[in-house]
Specification:
Layout (H helix, E strand, L loop, with lengths): L1 E4 L6 E4 L45 H10 L4 E10 L9 H11 L9 H4 L6 E10 L3 E8 L2 E8 L2 E6 L4 E6 L1 H5 L10 H10 L5 E11 L2 E10 L6 E9 L5 E8 L7 E9 L17 E4 L8 H9 L1 H6 L5 E3 L6 E5 L13 H9 L2 E5 L2 E7 L4 E5 L3 E5 L3 H11 L1
Parallel strand pairs: 1-9, 8-14
Antiparallel strand pairs: 1-2, 3-4, 3-13, 4-5, 5-6, 6-7, 7-8, 9-10, 10-11, 11-12, 12-13, 15-16, 16-20, 17-18, 18-19, 19-20
Length: 404
């Protein structure tokens, strides 16, 4: 049961009709490399709203969440600005390389592979152009200095194209369509809002926080705040289009204060049908084309888990388990190697470098290193176990002690 509170001082309500909040092991999954921790936060992400607060009819938090749930925007085009400030150390580009390799599961591959390319969104500010025409046609373009990366979904085909390297990545088959069943391109405020709303349970306060203008449109603001201490999440604000119910802007701020950790939103949006040619793609002459290996397709049971979230999903993540509940839940899994960071003769320089980025801790679980960002923190124990979540260092140590 989740608490939904009105911004009216005399009204407070608990909504018993909403789905029970789910534990979100997926957003806490991190590779052992410390820089990979940030990749887990991509599912929670957004830009500055227009000035002015429109005068809109009163609405309760319950009604606004229902409006989001009933939203069925199938056609749109626009520009999305995404800014991420996790507070990662400057590793001179090493972090993006490691995260890309972790996303691919190897150290190489095509630069046009979307699983590696979109990890660039975990740091800095990026501009995206997005378009959608139903569940089978979407396009996302990541605009970079002097180059562009495009991800096009048309029917059973998914094409990734990196103009900088002139490389193409092609995936065909049923799974390709399954990745985009929502009818929306990835990395939009709706994706982020859907993930945040899954977190709502009795550990959460949800209120309507006034109105705003976003991308020239009137919007309501939904404010989500954890009630628990021990989490690094301060608040999540979602600007919801007053007419369509589509989330237009998503902002996540840390409990520690300061700038948003994740801030993404439309700066321009249209709900007219994009031109059919928007989704046409033919590999440019001379481009290197990499076909997705059939063996890379996830097993059916894994794809089913990916759509369910919560503990069902945790069961499909190499035995990951969830400790605790709500916003202070921690995902735990074993790397299987029986050892933590490389040290001594086993890559001492790398182990020493990574170790210098973290804090040494100890407890009933033994010893380990905590790697921290402004949102997601991870504890890697000396015997190869990983504990990760949007929680404080003390909460990680407590979870590790309890899980021992």
């Amino acid at each position: 049961m989740a608490p939904y509170e009105s911004d009216d001082a005399t009204a407070a309500a608990r909504d018993e009709d909403l789905p029970t909040g789910r534990r979100k092991a997926a957003r806490y999954v991190v590779p052992v490399a410390v820089v990979g921790v940030a990749a887990a936060t991509i599912g929670l992400v957004p830009a500055l709203a227009d000035s002015g607060d429109p005068d809109l009819p009163k609405i309760t938090a319950q009604q606004l969440i229902d409006k989001i749930a009933k939203s069925d925007v199938q056609q749109l085009s626009g520009t999305v600005k995404v800014s991420t400030d996790l507070g990662l150390p400057d590793l001179g580009g090493l972090e993006s390389g490691l995260m890309s390799g972790a996303a691919r599961g190897d150290g190489g591959g095509s630069s046009a592979d979307p699983q590696s390319k979109l990890t660039e969104l975990v740091s800095g500010t990026h501009t995206l152009r997005v378009a959608a025409d139903g569940p089978d046609r979407q396009k996302l373009s990541l605009l970079e200095s002097g180059s562009e990366y495009s991800l096009v979904h048309d029917g059973k085909d998914v094409w990734g194209y990196d103009s900088k390297s002139n490389e193409v990545y092609h995936s065909a088959g049923a799974e390709s369509g399954g990745r985009h069943r929502t009818g929306q391109p990835p990395a939009t405020p709706k994706n982020f809002a859907d993930e945040a709303l899954k977190a709502v349970d009795d550990t959460t306060s949800v209120t309507v926080d006034g109105t705003a203008r976003v991308a020239g449109r009137d919007a309501y603001k939904l404010l989500i705040r954890p009630r628990q201490s021990g989490t690094t999440v301060g608040a999540i604000s979602i600007a919801v289009d007053a007419r369509t119910g589509l989330p237009l802007k998503f902002t996540l701020t840390p409990r520690s204060g300061g700038a948003a950790v994740l801030d993404a939103g439309f700066t321009q949006v249209s709900f007219a049908a994009p031109a059919a040619s928007t989704f046409d793609f033919t590999p440019p002459k001379g481009a290197k084309v990499t076909e997705e290996k059939k063996g890379a397709e996830a097993p059916e049971h894994t794809r089913e888990h990916a759509t369910k979230g919560g503990e069902d999903l945790a069961g499909g993540l190499n035995g990951a388990t969830v400790l605790g509940k709500g916003w202070t839940s921690v995902a735990s899994f074993d790397t299987g190697g029986g050892a933590g960071l490389p040290s001594g003769g086993q890559g001492g320089a790398l182990g020493g470098f990574l170790g210098s980025l973290g804090d040494q801790v100890s407890g009933k679980f033994g010893k380990g290193t905590v790697f921290s960002t402004r949102l997601v923190n991870a504890l890697i124990t000396d015997d190869g176990k990983v504990y990760a979540g949007a929680v404080t260092k003390d909460a990680l140590v407590k979870a590790a002690n309890a899980g021992k």
